[in-house]
Amino acid sequence: MSPNKAPVTVPFNALKPAEDAADVRAAIDRVLASGWFILGPEVEAFEAEFAAASRVPHAVGVGTGTDAITLILRALDIGPGDEVITPPLSAAYSALAIMMAGARPVFADIDPERLTLDPRLAEAAITTRTRAIMPVHLYGQAADMRRLEAIASRHNLALIEDAAQAHLATADGRPVGMIGVAAATSFYPTKNLGAAGDGGAVLTRDAQLAARVKRLRNGGQVTRYQHEEFGVNSRLDEMQAAILRARLKYLPAWTAKRRDIAARYRSTSMPVRVPGECDSGHVYHLFPVLTDARDAFQAHMKEQGVETLIHYPVPIPRQPALQSATPAMCAVADRVCSQVVSLPMYPGLSDDAVRVVAEAAATFGR
Question: Which of 9, 106, 128, 233 has its CA 20 to 30 A from that of 134?
């Protein structure tokens, strides 16, 4: 790069509609013209289309990914006095959702390579109060579901998947959402399939569970003004459903692009640790790297015009909001949270931008 040439700036993410812009605009206009904004034909159509794309029989749209977890737990009658085993490395909403259902999150440490719930430690954390195990498919890579499935079956526990970062991911070839009793996903704007606001969904094979989540999301109503049980107000609205429908057809190509970017990053010799791809069904919501010199690495990347972020700097058990959960210490998660840095990873990255990111990472410390 010549001294007079401005450095290329690579933002961490880009959320404005791009190739999908016309379809998103048409979806918005369609909803505005209809005058129907809550629990209408767009939500019903999106639920069917997202279920089909996810290769799961049922999808239920809800207000957020957090609500999706809470509603699954409530639909399974998991609440006060019950424990749910979950990993310490995730967005805190994973554990907060358990608390919203009245249950207690119990943390088992992560596998140092996959960075998801360690099955051996999850089994060791089971008590007489345990009702469920909830792994998080972190950064787009599924947890070790075969081992966790066996543990849940052996102890007669519900296996619930937090798939907020794993749209269309698979575990050993099986779609997430088809392995446990249900999966929760999020359509927060930064997700692989993002809305223009909040949104979430429950994926499940169980028709009765899907029906109960639909009832719970809408105040416990079976018919209008007939509230048969204590429900909440957590409904995916028509506008977000229409936008998600418009974007859903792009998701396979966007996923392929994320995998291509990841392969290019992985082929670059970087003086940082790149966590392994433990399953070919990885959908690369994020691309984390690990380094003991995180501050220096981020400063170097910034100097090269590359924005980076940290996912996640504080293990969930160390959050003040979780102190009442009296969590066990999780040494691997503590270490990872002190080392992890996320590189730009989104389908809108140009080939030149990917090259800039890779070269910047490769020259760290030189």
Answer: 233
Asked whether residue 293 falls in the same domain as residue 190, the answer is no
DSSP 94: H
Kind plus residue range of the DSSP H or E element containing 201: strand 200-204
Looking at residue 6, its pLDDT comes to 44
Structure tokens at 353: 């931008």
What is the 3-class SS of 326-341, one letter each residue?
Answer: CCCCCHHHHHHHHHEE
Q: What is d(CA 132, CA 116) in angstroms, rounded to the nearest whole number?
A: 16
Q: Give me the count of residues in the chain.
A: 366
Tokens of 76: 């399974």
Task: Verify that 189 and 200 share a domain, yes or no.
Answer: yes
Q: Is the peptide bond before 312 cis (omega within 30 degrees of 0)?
A: yes
pLDDT of residue 290: 98
Q: Which residues of the chain have pLDDT under 70?
A: 1-8, 324-327
Domain final position from 248, 265, 281? 248
What pTM did the predictor assign? 0.95
pLDDT at residue 7, as a whole number:
67
Q: For residue 32, tell me if it sits in a domain.
A: yes
User: b/e for 119-140, b at 16 or more Cβ within 10 A?
Assistant: bebbbebbeeebbbbbbbbbbb
